[in-house]
Amino acid sequence: MNERQLFDLLLLGSLMVAAGTALILVFVVAPYGRHIRKGWGPSMDNRLGWIVMEAPAPLVFALCFMAGEYRTTITAQVFLFMWEAHYIHRSFIYPFGLRGADRRMPVVIVGMGFFFNALNGYLNGRWLFTFSGGYPNSWLLDPRFVLGLLLFVAGFVINRQADRTLRSLREHGEAGYAVPEGGMYRWISCPNYFGEIVEWIGWAIATWSLAGLAFALWTAANLAPRAHSHHQWYRESFSDYPPDRKALVPRLW
Q1: Do 45 and 102 touch, CB atoms closer than 8 A?
Q2: How many whole angstroms separate alpha carbon 153 and alpha carbon 210?
Q3: What Cα–Cα distance (Å) separates residue 35 from each residue in 10, 162, 230?
Q4: pLDDT tens per residue, range 35-52
Q5: Span between the terminal Cα atoms of the chain, in Å
Q6: How far apart are CA 176 and CA 13, in angstroms?
Q7: Closest CA to 65 of 132, 125, 118
Q8: Using CA of residue 91, residue 189, residue 220, residue 114, what is the dihedral sign?
Q9: Alpha-carbon span 141 to 119, nearest angstrom
Q10: Domain locations along the chain
Q11: What is the pLDDT of residues 115-144, one digit of tens each?
Q12: What does DSSP assign to residue 129?
């Protein structure tokens, strides 16, 4: 089996497992953050856990870029910038902005995140910079790229604004939760997840690739059930929680 055959096999497996993951997470809430609970084995510091499980995404993707045959075009460098803009923040900046009391994360969750991010970075990076045959600079004017970039940027901004709102609810060392207000929190409980899903849908359209599609499906499969769990938790924890606020999609769900 050569690398391209292995790549195709991993990509097919990724697409198939995404559906199963969504189904599982409807019934099993991933045990980290506000949903942390016993029974999931050894745990580690929450901030360190975030770094360990997210770091493979920017590192593996960058390695694929450096090893790629089609990395010299402006388009390839734009794709590199888009990916790293998200993941350098998520891996090495976001964890140090977490507030509240020190928390723990199950090692098994960290390990699963590490594996997924390494695989996802490989599938997207290897496709873009090697197996795709290269994206010409004219791709930057293609309607698919333009639409995808607009969605990516919109999702990126929504995600960051929502994270800043959540961070502002606590001072360092505070352990409690409060109801976030303002921005898209006026309509949904989890605009941070909404923004991330929009962001990677934009990526899938901008790259027009099965690897990008697989990532968008994985993102929705992971975050949509978690948004539902967050929404239910808010409604159960706060008697005055806004009754018209939806979980993930304004006015719909």
Answers
A1: yes
A2: 21
A3: 31, 19, 9
A4: 777 778 899 999 999 999
A5: 44
A6: 40
A7: 125
A8: positive
A9: 29
A10: 3-237
A11: 999 999 999 999 999 999 999 999 999 999
A12: I
